[in-house]
């Protein structure tokens, strides 16, 4: 039997960040998972808030940050309003001259692997399938398909594709079929550290500069959209026909498609098992907050583990996990559900909803206090 303090199920970025964070104080951490079930977005780019950037710095990941693109401005609004520089748009520009950074998931993942291999307190085992789990208040025993067993004080689940969720968290997920596919493009485009969130009747478009000549375009389209069957050349023509005044693209270098799903866990812990990341919340990409929420999960989990350890409680005690769940509830609930309704409101052709959305945008743009609060929330500086 293998003995470890913490076992993390999942091989994605969230698992690796959690392992490096929780391996402090000489805790033994084991990462296990199936290589075939890794997060489908591992080769894309992600917007990191300023608090998430500071988190990466604490893990000595400056090399990754140095290869990222700074975002100094973000404009949000409906297509026609952005083109006309209309009053019905929101323009964010932080006084610190940086709202966040765009980081390559591939570069981050590779650097995390290096860090994990250098850390004597972390072991990673790939291509492992878990058959069953026996748990109590103070320990979990994972039974693998090979028959081998892992004894762990705290079990962290970060991914959705594991039978541990079906076995221990039955009927725990709120699911919604978004009936959308995300079309992700790497494009040649002259960028100016300016990101856009464009709302169209066909779906939201995010434009994220990667460097001065390269950007990522994420277009969330209804599954019935003709554009999903377009070639790279046709997509380029489509973008430049309708959006060239905002995000003119010279060439589409790569194109990928991903089905969008919404899943929200009503309960995020059970005795000494805790859910973080995608296992707890899988949200619409409209706000670009998915991985930032996961990082907040990791930080809060570490805070509660350290606090209750100082008070003399054993690792994996339910009091610390209950406190973690309570403190993360409002933030994850707000972001999870607001992304769905934002997308539906801005896509709608309903006259009243259009009036409401325009009024809301105009009110936010004119109110410095509200804008500052939104910036603080989006950049992770609200606490």
Which descriptors would you attach to this protein?
383 residues; FAD/NAD(P)-binding domain; D-Amino Acid Oxidase, Chain A, domain 2; eight-stranded mixed sheet; 11 helices; 19 strands; 31% strand
* CATH fourth-tier homologous superfamily of the largest domain: FAD/NAD(P)-binding domain
Please, what is the average pLDDT?
82
Helix count from the secondary structure assignment: 11
Measured by DSSP, the beta-strand proportion falls in: 25-35%
Give the low-confidence spans: 363-371
CATH T-level topology of the largest domain: FAD/NAD(P)-binding domain
Largest sheet: 8 strands, mixed
Compressed to H and E, one letter per element, the order equals: EHEEHHEEHEEHEEEEHEEEEHEEEEHHHH
Give the proportion of residues in helices: 25-40%
In total, the number of strands is 19
Name the CATH architecture of the largest domain. Answer: 3-Layer(bba) Sandwich
Report the end-to-end length measured between terminal Cα atoms.
42 Å
**Protein structure class:** alpha+beta
Instruction: List the domain count as a whole number.
Output: 2
The CATH class of the largest domain, by name, is: Alpha Beta
**Radius of gyration from the CA trace?**
21 Å
Shape: globular
């Amino acid at each position: 039997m293998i003995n470890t303090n913490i076992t993390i199920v999942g091989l994605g970025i969230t698992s690796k960040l959690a392992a490096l964070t929780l391996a402090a104080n000489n805790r033994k951490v084991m990462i296990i998972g199936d290589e075939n079930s890794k997060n489908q977005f591992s080769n894309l780019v992600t917007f990191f808030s300023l608090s998430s950037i500071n988190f990466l710095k604490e893990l000595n990941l400056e090399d990754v940050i140095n290869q990222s693109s700074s975002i100094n401005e973000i404009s949000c609004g409906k297509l026609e309003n952005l083109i006309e520089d209309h009053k019905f748009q929101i323009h964010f520009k932080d006084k610190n001259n940086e709202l966040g950074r765009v980081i390559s998931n591939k570069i981050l993942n590779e650097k995390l692997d290096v860090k994990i291999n250098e850390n004597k307190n972390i072991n990673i085992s790939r291509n492992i399938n878990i058959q069953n789990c026996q748990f109590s208040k103070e320990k979990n025993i994972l039974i693998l398909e090979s028959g081998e067993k892992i004894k762990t004080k705290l079990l962290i689940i970060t991914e959705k594709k594991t039978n541990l969720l079906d076995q221990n968290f039955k009927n725990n997920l709120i699911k919604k079929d978004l009936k959308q596919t995300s079309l992700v493009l790497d494009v040649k485009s002259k960028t100016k550290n300016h990101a856009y969130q464009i709302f169209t009747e066909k779906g939201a478009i995010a434009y994220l500069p990667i460097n001065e000549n390269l950007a990522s375009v994420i277009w969330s389209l209804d599954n019935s959209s003709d554009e999903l069957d377009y070639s790279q050349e046709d997509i380029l023509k489509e973008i430049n026909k309708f959006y060239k005044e905002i995000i003119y693209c010279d060439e589409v270098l790569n194109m990928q498609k991903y089905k969008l799903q919404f899943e929200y866990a009503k309960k995020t812990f059970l005795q000494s098992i805790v859910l973080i990341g995608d296992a707890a919340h899988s949200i619409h990409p409209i706000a670009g907050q998915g991985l930032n929420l996961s990082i907040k999960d990791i930080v809060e989990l570490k805070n509660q583990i350290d606090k209750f350890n100082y008070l003399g409680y054993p690792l994996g005690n339910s009091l610390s996990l209950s406190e973690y769940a309570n403190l993360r509830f409002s933030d994850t609930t707000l972001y999870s559900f607001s992304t769905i309704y934002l997308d539906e409101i801005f896509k709608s052709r309903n006259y009243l909803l259009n009036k409401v959305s325009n009024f809301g945008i105009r009110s936010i743009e004119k109110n410095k206090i509200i804008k500052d609060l939104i910036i603080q929330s989006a950049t992770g500086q609200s606490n």
